[in-house]
Amino acid sequence: MISSSANRGVKRISMKNVLSIILGGGAGTRLYPLTKMRAKPAVPLAGKHRLIDIPISNCINSNILKIYILTQFNSASLNRHISRTYCISDFQQGFVETLAAQQTPGNLDWFQGTADAVRQHLSLFQELDVDEYLILSGDHLYRMDYQDFIRRHRETGADITLAVLPVGEERASSFGLVKINDAGRIDQFSEKPKGDPLRQMQVDTTRLGLSTDEAKNKPYIASMGIYVFKRKVLIDLLNQHPDHTDFGKEIIPNSAKDFNVQAYLFNDYWEDIGTIESFFNANLDLAKQPDPSFSFYKKSEPIYTRARYLPPTKQLECHVSQSMISEGCILKECRISHSVIGIRTRIETGCTISNSLLMGADYFQSNFEREGDCNRATIPIGIGANSEIHNAIIDKNARIGCNVKILNKDNVEEADREEDGFFIRSGIVIVLKDATLQDGTVI
């Protein structure tokens, strides 16, 4: 029987000998232009957090305090966020550190894949006295107690354990799928199959503990890209197969015959937010009441982020519904619905914001509380008076003039207008970080 993350109240186990390795991902092309000036794990989330806060918080809540983050693209803001946010006491023998790709006398290449990223820093990881390596991704939204995961790994004597998710047919072809035997051991893999190969990967997921109805709707088992390895197994696999650069496509599928590869069921909310559309929808879902799919309001398992000590938000005769408003904002006689408003956002009189994500600003401009004025030499950071924004992402420090309309009335699905300060992806308008839209602009 496969263990489930819903298994609570079980005696906690020691995590002192576990090293967490969080993969920062590649260039983040699917999240471009949000990754134009930052690493994928540094993309803002939920108004005040960043994507990397999710796996790090899961580690801390699971008492895993040895954490490395591997990155190679636009890592400056990520490094800054990590250094300012996560300072683990020396008495706890823990750390949270970023490791960037680097050229060495023995290797002149960038990371070639997930496994290669770990391989390039393997000598450093071997210096630590740990028994297991926990491999995580930096662009997933979920809450997991990794102690349950590692307990399952130890109880089954597994060499490798994968976290798996039951999914329906509409999502299955987007994942690497697995089949398991009665002991929970994985004996078959298929990477993003379609057609007949997809249907051949169907399993009776009641064996995982799902109800009959739920199993009917979710007849596939998807790998979540979350793994735990025995120390020696990972070291040997990476050293013996230098041509294998990816965990999900090469290392793990080729290990099933010779190693005990087990599955761990995670039947809870999990979202790969690696695309603009999934990122946008996941953020707006947070504002849903009363039951968002994921909640930041959980006392026992908080999601940590940088403490900024910002003042409270001021709302001056505003109408706000189904929205999240971060701290340090000034909102003046505006209407906001089903939106997420990031830190230090300024919205002037007469604006309407709906179904949108505003990431806010990195700093306060002088005279932040000033009266709105459309007769000025320079457009300030924020949203100018009488502007209307719908179905959009406004990246940090953007300057939106007065009487701007961001509506995509022509329902354009894809557009690259970098010279004008915006892109359109899946019908969502993305205004670039630090961009300026002049008064009266219509998109």
UniProtKB/TrEMBL annotation:
Q: Does the keyword Ion transport feature in the UniProt annotation?
A: no
- Which terms are listed as keywords in the entry? ATP-binding, Carbohydrate metabolism, Glycogen metabolism, Nucleotide-binding, Nucleotidyltransferase, Transferase
**Annotated ranges, domain Nucleotidyl transferase:** 20-288
Q: Which PROSITE patterns match?
A: ADP_GLC_PYROPHOSPH_1 (PS00808), ADP_GLC_PYROPHOSPH_2 (PS00809), ADP_GLC_PYROPHOSPH_3 (PS00810)
Q: Record keywords: Mitochondrion included?
A: no
Enzyme class, top EC level, equals: transferase
A GO molecular function annotation here is: structural constituent of carboxysome shell
Q: Which GO terms describe its cellular component?
A: carboxysome
Record-linked CDD domains: ADP_Glucose_PP (cd02508), LbH_G1P_AT_C (cd04651)
Protein name (database record):
Glucose-1-phosphate adenylyltransferase
Quick one: which gene encodes this? glgC-2
